[in-house]
Design a protein that fits this description.
about 325 residues, alpha/beta, TIM Barrel, Arc Repressor Mutant, subunit A, nine-stranded mixed β-sheet, about 20% strand, binds iron/sulfur cluster
Length: about 325
């Protein structure tokens, strides 16, 4: 499939079918922790990159193949709200199924009323907020020219007032960057202004090709939870896992997932083992065959091997 990938499992969204509406990489930001590599050319104008009917057709097909999906999640190769027509797609998906729809976005375009309007039918929206000050926002997100921190916050505040669904803000906590007491206090202060339903703290557990990013210490994670909990409900999500059991073509399904983010080798091994219970030789052979295709390569992050896409995003050779 070209647009639909997964299902992936996470504590936040359970079993989630991903829908990617963008050509890689299309983004308004150039986050230093981005798993897709450097934003070579910023995109800031909404476009219908691919025909909406074609995307809807794939979602229909994927829903017929995968039962027990908890969420359909628009997320992918950049900033989701750059896809013009996402509101139409959300409305059409809701005619197909009662499965709720989530949108993962960096939130940078929410200052525009027409962008906020596109999201009103989503059941959950998960925008990013990694900083409580202009300086840190610029350091982490490195946004396109003209996109300011204040505009980002004002977009989130306006969206909260108009949107009746679940607003779950994602905070990427980076060791040594936004985990100081001061940075956390600034974040809490803007979160109070925004008033989300919840905050999900996410960690840089996967490698980023452009720059080494570090996990915060346990003490800093606990401090972040304590500080942000003073203004909203905070969730420190457990890591999810992949489910390949219903994939019609395992290699294609794995390629679709890894082209969107690196996958820990252990996690991939478990997902393949779930497809071949008790057949450890088959699991090892399948992984070897996948590597032999040249589509993937191995990189190390925090002492763990990860699979990344073979030709993309400037990953270092091992
Ligand atoms: S992490 Fe998300 S918002 Fe940041 S540059 Fe990558 S795709 Fe864009």
């Amino acid at each position: 499939m070209k647009y639909v990938f997964g299902p992936l499992s996470s504590k936040r969204l359970g079993q989630s079918l991903g829908v990617d509406l963008l050509p890689p990489k299309s983004c308004t930001w150039n986050c230093l922790y981005c798993q897709l590599g450097k934003t070579k050319k910023f995109a800031t104008d909404m476009q219908e990159f691919f025909p909406r009917e074609e995307i809807l057709g794939e979602i229909r097909e994927a829903l017929a193949l995968n039962k027990g999906i908890d969420w359909i999640t628009f997320v992918g190769s950049g900033e989701t709200m750059l896809y013009k027509g996402i509101g139409w797609l959300i409305a059409e998906v809701k005619k197909l199924t009662t499965t709720p729809v989530a949108v993962i976005t960096n939130g940078s375009l929410l200052f525009m009323p027409e962008v906020r309007e596109e999201l009103l039918q989503a059941d959950a929206v998960l925008p990013s907020l990694n900083a409580g000050s202009e300086a840190l926002h610029r350091q982490i997100g490195r946004p396109a020219e003209g996109l300011t921190f204040r505009q980002h916050i004002e977009g989130l505040v306006a969206f909260r007032k108009e949107y009746k669904g679940r607003l779950w803000i994602e905070v990427m906590l980076l060791g040594g960057i936004n985990d100081s007491d001061e940075a956390l206090r600034d974040l809490a202060s803007v979160l109070k202004e925004i008033n989300p339903d919840m905050v999900h703290i996410v960690l840089p557990t996967r490698p980023a090709p452009e720059q080494e990013v570090h996990l915060p210490s346990q003490e800093r994670i606990e401090r972040a939870i304590a500080t942000l909990s003073e203004v909203t409900t905070v969730v420190n999500p457990l890591k999810g896992h992949m489910d390949l059991r219903n994939a019609p073509d395992m290699l294609e399904a794995v390629t679709a997932i890894i082209s969107r983010h690196p996958v820990q080798q252990r996690e991939l091994h478990k997902a393949i083992a779930d497809c071949f219970p008790g057949e450890s030789d088959t699991v090892d052979d399948t992984m070897q065959e996948m590597l032999a295709t040249g589509r993937f390569k191995l990189v190390e992050h925090n002492g763990e091997p990860y699979w990344v896409i073979g030709d993309g995003a400037g990953w270092p050779q091992q």
